[in-house]
Design a protein that fits this description.
eight-stranded mixed β-sheet, 22 strands, 19% strand, flavoprotein, flavin adenine dinucleotide binding
């Protein structure tokens, strides 16, 4: 029997970027919030001298323990799903800050095209451009409506960047200038410029200079130490909920955080949520936290799983196309990249930062003509200098043995003489790519695991082939001696694929029949539940999702305040 606690105005499940922003905005408005986080408390001091590749990258200390809670995966509906047992692909954060503590910091806006993708695609290419098996839809909001929220997020996080002409209009420039352009990035810049493209420095949450944000939070500049992804930042230079929004919420005295607390399900009465049930992961005690508003702001998978385990919303059925919870799960494609090897050139690959990169905009979204192509949308063609780390850095030309004396000598031969031209492609939703509850496997608390049914589609494979031609041409222009291009998209493997960006499952839109939440991320079927995060994306763009997640979180916080005052579904 769960111990019932006193009722609160708002309970927030998950204290990453979404939960942190919601908590900060509500508490600044004087609204008490209880924030529940299944992991432990974290602060910048925890990462001092934390450049431990084995501990954080390979043993994934900041991530969810897959022996206690994971997902299952199958490629098709007629396969048996099996649990994901290691982090070969996406990594799920655990603890205060969530994925916002271990991310790289690449902070793009989605394109105007993204938010009205179905309408704009059909207007330009006709109604037959989108095949019926692709469940592509508009988002129920436009870029112009999103722009102020993007601006707010970027000012809070201190995003470092430069304006790009082919992207949407901006009310303001980035609050800080772009990061340093290194010799590595200059190689890409020279080659792409000579090919007629317009390279730009990637917008970065790794501060290019010292910065104080509108909430009075001051942070130091990036030191280019190369320990960003999978690591917390010991300098506080990387924007992280723990050093930005959560301290602001705590300073109000209106936020109570409960760590080591894993929410199992939402409680409900009819079509309204009444609170949450959570377990203290240290003592095993169960508690019921009643609330007027429940904000589900955990990771993509857990957002959908909590609703499904709680019986809130209508589960998606791929056979009928009806229902919305679990619909339009989307990933991203990373094949189509090229590795360029140089026999007589060496680069300093061991310094860097998670968002130290350069990119061209010409192949993103609908910035190029798709009339004669068997896909829509595009890829970010980019080069990053993350900073190579010694344990996992063994890049060799294709055809090299994967072990033995030749592998060792070739690893040394090319250790500082290769560059990667990456392609990060969009992911369009398909009727058979979705999330539901696994009928067989359960977590450590006896709750059904989330089951992912997902594989790459013809759309993905065609996009990869096209982008492979682009990246290989850039490598040629760079003067590479050996060019290795991955031009075919293999079937999805949950234990090997390496893109970390998951979206969908609780998608937004203007129609309750095809979407789970409205443009304020308020559930159509349970008006006092707001589901905040990348789970709201109806498709995945070619850009990293955090900037859009942050913008939507600010809009949701605005909607929650309105709902607390007047109730009802927001328009």
């Amino acid at each position: 029997m769960a111990t019932k606690l006193p009722k609160v105005p708002v309970v927030v499940v998950g204290m990453g970027w979404a939960g942190g922003i919601i908590s900060a905005e509500l508490t600044k408005a004087g609204i008490p919030v209880v924030g529940i986080e299944r992991g432990k408390e974290r602060k910048t001091e925890d990462y001092l001298m934390g450049h431990d590749e084995l501990r954080f990258q390979h043993r994934t200390e900041l991530m969810q323990d897959l022996s206690k809670e994971t997902i299952t995966h199958r490629n098709t509906l007629n396969m048996r799903a099996l649990p994901m047992r290691n982090y070969g692909t996406f990594i799920v954060g655990d603890g205060l800050g969530g994925a916002g503590s271990h991310w790289n910091g690449q902070t793009y806006r989605f394109l105007p095209y993204d938010f009205e993708i179905k309408t704009l695609t059909e207007q330009k290419y006709g109604p037959n451009k989108i095949a019926p098996e692709y469940t592509i839809q508009d988002w129920g909001i436009t870029y112009d409506e999103m722009e102020p929220y993007y601006d707010t997020f970027e000012k809070m996080a201190g995003i470092s960047g430069e304006t790009v002409e082919l992207y949407g209009k901006r009310a303001n420039p980035y609050p800080t200038g772009p990061m340093l352009k290194t010799p590595v990035l200059e190689v890409f810049e020279k080659a792409t410029t000579s090919l007629g493209y317009k390279p730009y420095m990637v917008p970065s949450a790794n501060l290019s200079e010292a910065y104080t944000n509108p909430d009075g939070i001051s942070r130091a500049a990036c030191q280019y130490c190369a320990y960003c992804e999978n690591f917390g930042c010991e300098y506080g230079a990387k924007a992280d909920p723990v050093v930005t929004v959560i301290p602001v919420a705590k300073e109000t005295g209106k936020l109570e955080t409960r760590t080591h607390s894993n929410v199992l399900r939402l409680t409900k009465d009819g079509n309204r949520a009444t609170g949450v049930i959570y377990v203290n992961t240290i003592t095993g005690e169960e508690f019921e936290q009643p609330a007027d508003v429940v904000v589900v702001a955990s990771y993509v998978f857990n957002n959908a799983r909590l609703l499904l385990n709680s019986g809130i919303g209508t589960p998606y059925n791929p056979e009928t196309g009806k229902g919305t919870i679990g619909k339009n799960y989307a990933y991203q494609v990373s094949s189509g990249f090229t590795t360029a090897f140089f026999k007589d050139r060496e680069f300093n690959l061991y310094a860097g930062a998670g968002a130290l990169g350069i990119e061209i905009p010409e192949f993103t979204g609908d910035n190029f003509d798709h009339s004669d192509l068997n896909f829509i949308h595009g890829s970010g063609i980019r080069m990053f200098q993350y900073g190579a780390r010694p344990i996992a850095n063994n890049v060799v030309p294709s055809g090299t043995p994967s072990w033995g004396a030749e592998f060792k000598s070739e690893s040394i031969r090319w250790a500082n003489s290769f560059l990667k031209i990456a392609s990060q492609g969009s992911s369009m939703p398909h009727k058979n790519n979705y999330l539901d509850l696994d009928p067989e496997f359960k977590d450590a608390y006896g709750m059904p695991l989330l089951r992912m049914t997902y594989d790459y589609t013809d759309q993905d494979r065609e996009l990869v082939k096209y982008m492979a031609g682009v990246t290989s041409k850039i490598a040629e222009e760079m003067g590479a001696d050996i060019i290795d291009t991955v031009s075919e998209q293999a079937p999805f493997n949950v234990n090997k694929d390496t893109n970390t960006h998951n979206t969908g499952g609780v998608i937004m839109g203007a129609d309750p029949a095809t979407s789970a939440v409205n443009s304020y991320l308020q559930m159509w079927e349970a008006e006092n539940v707001f589901v905040v995060g990348a789970s709201a994306f109806p498709h995945n763009s070619n850009f990293n999702p955090t900037g859009t997640l942050g913008a939507l979180s600010y809009r949701a916080a605005e909607g929650i305040q309105t709902y607390l005052k007047q109730g009802g579904l927001l328009v």
